[in-house]
Design goal:
By secondary structure, the protein is an alpha/beta fold. It contains 17 helices and 19 strands. It starts with 9 loop residues before the first strand and ends with a helix. The structure holds ligand NPW, adenosine-5'-diphosphate (ADP) and potassium ion. Pfam families: Carb_kinase (PF01256), YjeF_N (PF03853).
Length: 470
């Protein structure tokens, strides 16, 4: 179940085949799907490249079949097209597509090298191993010699499920995904092999998908009769480095919480006066039943004092966001004692440290498998942060954020994200939705902030990011 109908499914090769098989079983021939796919891709190439001379490279499977359909459709648009095949078609649909193309088919190694446009339809989701060295080198040569290049479904040589290149893979201008997004469309290093990507909807639904692309969420303004407590009280616990918790607290205040209380901090420069301070000694400040999200970790410290504060904070079983040093303190026992609505926000280093230590947990695979396994084993929502951020829930659902600006790689941005998670948890009461909303707002604030910002500079852009979702 997607978190909203805006979130497009992201499939493995096997899931894509199953989705395709279901449509075929429903009475649509495979060849009709190939026609839809090839014509949709050809229309995009035609719009981008008009009548530029185009070389279509066709492989033996249905990716190659798409290539023949593209070549015919481009020819029908009046585009000068040549086709070069690596091997004869081996599937019935690809054979049919080649017959309908009907034109000359040149040898992959013998066709001339310089074309204005090159279309890679050698291999798609059926790739089982890297391309042979000379095939990969020739593909790189042809693509690099062109002005524009298009990868059909997936660049040939990229493994669909983990986004890894299995042989040398060139860089394309556009990757045209067919049917549904596949994992490689979201994962590094594959995402570095095209400038843009586009999804062609060819009428293949994926009702069983559990992984989705993170898209702009829909948010609501506070209810007409809202007051600060109904909007959500966030309690942020400070520690050794009060600046980090102040940054997180301010992000929480701007991220939609009605009231933010910063606990256990003596003095912090430049924190908004709207953020109310309280002492750790004030029992009621932490036990307050109106707290809808507790945030702890940024600046907490890895010493005994930090561990003690974490223990004190978790006693009350508030819905919680655990970040940074709080994750460092999280031991196996503490994991079992997490409240039901918990969000953990590790980066890769913190992730490895926490989950590698959990007994019997096999953590391997892409960031998607890592986050999903960790969420299922901890019972918490896991936000595995990085250039590609994955939000995973204990029910197996996950969203992947593939478009955050790399300017986020600066100190303190994680504190801002933790604050946003707390705000959205306080507002929604749903940790999975909250984490997904927070990751999107964080990326959008970064986009709006432009280049070379400091983590603090994200704060004034959070309201504009929220405005984009109303
Ligand atoms: N899903 C959908 O909804 C739709 C999918 N469509 C399209 O179908 C594509 C998937 O087609 P596909 O399954 O036929 O696989 P494809 O990628 O063409 O290659 C398989 C062939 O290559 C071979 N082979 C593999 N690796 C190799 C290597 N390194 N070097 C050499 N050979 C290698 C492999 O044989 P093998 O040697 O492994 O036995 C087999 O012969 C998909 O990406 C999309 O474009 C659309 O048409 C319609 C809607
Ligand atoms: N190259 C990148 N592209 C996009 N986002 C990134 C990149 N590097 C880091 N980020 C994001 O920036 C934030 C960094 O958080 P974190 O590692 O906790 O840093 P800190 O502890 O300094 O606050 C995360 O949200 C992460 O997803
Ligand atoms: K391809």
């Amino acid at each position: 179940m997607p978190i909203s109908d805006r979130n497009a499914p992201v499939l493995t090769a096997a899931e894509m085949r199953a989705a395709e098989a279901a449509v075929i079983a429903g009475g649509v021939p495979e060849y009709a799907l190939m026609q839809r796919a090839g014509k949709a891709a050809a229309e995009i190439i035609w719009r981008a490249g008009a009548k530029r001379e185009t070389l279509v490279l066709c492989g033996p499977g249905n990716n190659g079949g798409d290539g023949y359909v593209i070549a015919k459709a481009l020819r029908d648009y009046g585009v000068p097209v040549k086709v070069a095949a690596l091997a004869d078609p081996v599937t019935e649909s690809a054979r049919q597509a080649r017959a309908e193309w009907g034109g000359a088919v040149e040898g992959f190694f013998h066709v001339e090298t310089h074309f204005a446009q090159v279309v890679d339809a050698l291999f798609g989701t059926g790739l089982t191993r890297g391309l042979e060295g000379e095939v990969a080198a020739r593909l790189v040569q042809l693509v690099e010699a062109s002005e524009r290049s298009y990868a059909i479904d997936i660049p040939s040589g990229i493994s669909t499920d983990d986004g890894m290149p299995l042989s040398a893979v060139p860089h394309f201008d556009l990757c045209i995904a067919l049917g549904q997004w596949k994992r490689a469309h979201m994962l590094r290093p594959a995402t570095g092999h095209w400038r843009r990507k586009h999804l062609c909807d060819i009428g293949i639904p994926a009702p069983d998908a559990t992984l989705f692309r993170l898209e702009r969420p829909r948010l609501s303004p506070p209810a007409d009769d809202a007051h600060k407590y109904t909007r959500g009280l966030v309690a942020a616990v400070a520690g050794e480095m009060p600046g980090a918790s102040a940054l997180a607290a301010e992000a929480a205040a701007r991220g939609g919480a009605g009231y933010v209380r910063l606990i256990g901090v003596q003095s912090v420069n430049r924190t908004s006066h709207a953020i109310v301070r309280a002492s750790m000694k004030n029992e009621a400040a932490l036990s307050d039943p109106r707290i809808r999200a507790l945030l702890i970790g940024p600046g907490l410290g890895r010493g005994e004092a930090g561990a003690e504060r974490l223990g004190q904070a978790l006693v009350h079983s508030h819905p919680v966001v655990l970040d940074a040093d709080a994750l460092w303190h999280l031991a196996e026992g503490a994991m079992a004692a997490l409240p039901e609505n918990a969000i953990l926000t590790p980066h890769a280093g913190e992730f490895a440290q926490i989950f590698a230590n959990l007994s019997g947990l096999d953590i391997s695979g892409t960031v998607i498998e890592l986050a999903v396994t960790a969420a299922q084993s901890s019972g918490a929502v896991v936000v595995l942060k990085g250039p590609t951020t994955v939000v995973a829930g204990p029910d197996g659902r996950a969203v992947v954020a593939d478009a955050a600006p790399s300017w986020l790689s600066t100190a303190g941005t994680g504190d801002v994200l933790a604050g946003l998670c707390a705000a959205r948890l306080a507002v929604t009461g749903d940790p999975f939705r909250a984490a997904a909303e927070a990751v999107w707002l964080h990326g959008e604030a970064a986009r709006l902030a432009g280049p070379a910002f400091l983590a603090d500079d994200l704060l004034p852009y959070i309201p504009a990011a929220i405005a984009a979702c109303l």
